[in-house]
Design a protein that fits this description.
This protein is an alpha+beta fold. It is 25% helix and 31% strand. The chain starts with a strand and ends with a helix.
């Protein structure tokens, strides 16, 4: 139950649809603890009919977040909280937001300012359901070894990223040691400075792991995902071996069977547990579609509540 909202099922899993209990109800009226309590159970929420603008969406994100994390490679909107989704028009594979790096947020948010006239759905896939559906062989393989994402990042990009997250306007003066200090999230990260000023990093993390809300294993990662704005990473097991082709095909089959679609309407907001639920996108068939993304870490006060 959420005060001021009607709560119904969305999709074939545990996702929830929230709509106003009375006309004129805004996002700000929804109790924060109840919203996060619903997210804990559902994995993702779709909020429809609250008719926010970009500023109200940004305020809603901020009200539930200890920290908003942005990517300076994208365009800023909404008081530097939201960023326009600008990853071309092709379909995008399932992934965690920034899941191929040590900078993954715990929450991912979307705001649909203008829905597509056809297609272009955002996809979601619950890592709890995927883990339960994988074969014994696949689960054993992913239990035994972590996965490693590795790639090169150009000097201008890693320095801009580091400066932004340090609150500095002087990207030229940041150091690789400062970037290493920022890379303190889950998993293990090794960052090497290359002769041309670029870096190479290797990020090691389990493919299946506990979530923001508990220790139940979720198969939630970015091994199927894209790499927009940055070089595509190499993805291997921790011993350097590629994930076997038949295991990757199994993952693709199982996740597609369990993938659900968010059919956007104007003004929709989605909130996703980025430690449990992967997201992606069907191909964009209407270029007028306008969706904004925000990423943040859940306020620890709300997590404790």
């Amino acid at each position: 139950m959420i005060d001021h909202a009607r709560v119904t099922s969305y999709g074939s899993g545990t996702g929830l649809l929230l709509t106003p209990a009375e006309p004129g109800t805004t996002l700000a009226a929804l109790p924060r603890e109840q919203v996060i309590g619903a997210l804990r159970e559902a994995g993702f929420l779709l909020l429809r009919g609250f008719e926010p603008d970009l500023e109200q969406f940004s305020a809603f994100v901020g009200a539930h977040s200890e920290r908003v994390t942005l990517d300076p490679a994208r365009t800023f909107h909404g008081g530097s909280t939201a960023q326009k989704v600008d990853a071309g028009y092709d379909a995008v594979g399932l992934h965690l937001e920034n899941g191929n790096s040590p900078f993954a947020p715990t929450l991912t948010w979307f705001f649909c300012e203008k829905a597509a006239s056809s297609g272009s759905q955002t996809t979601v896939c619950d890592g709890y359901r995927v883990w339960d559906a994988l074969s014994d062989e696949a689960r054993a393989m992913f239990r035994e070894q972590d996965i490693v994402y590795s790639r090169r990042v150009e000097e201008a990009k890693w320095k801009a990223f580091t400066a932004f997250h340090l609150g500095s306007s002087d990207a030229a003066s940041v150091t690789v040691d400062q970037l290493r200090e920022l890379a303190g999230g889950p998993g293990e990260t090794v960052i090497d400075l290359l002769d041309d000023g670029s870096i190479h990093y290797a990020y090691r993390v389990p493919a299946a792991h506990g979530t923001l809300f508990g220790e139940r294993l979720a198969f939630a990662n970015s091994i199927l995902g894209p790499s927009n704005h940055y070089e595509k990473p190499r993805i291997t097991f921790a011993d350097g071996q590629d994930i076997p082709v038949h295991i990757m095909k199994e993952v693709e089959t199982v996740t597609e069977e369990l993938t659900e679609e968010l059919d956007w309407a104007d003004g929709d907001v989605a909130l996703i547990d980025n430690t449990r639920v992967m997201h992606g996108r069907r191909a964009i068939t209407d270029p007028e579609r306008t969706i904004y993304n925000a990423q943040s870490d859940l306020d620890r006060v709300l997590l404790a509540a």
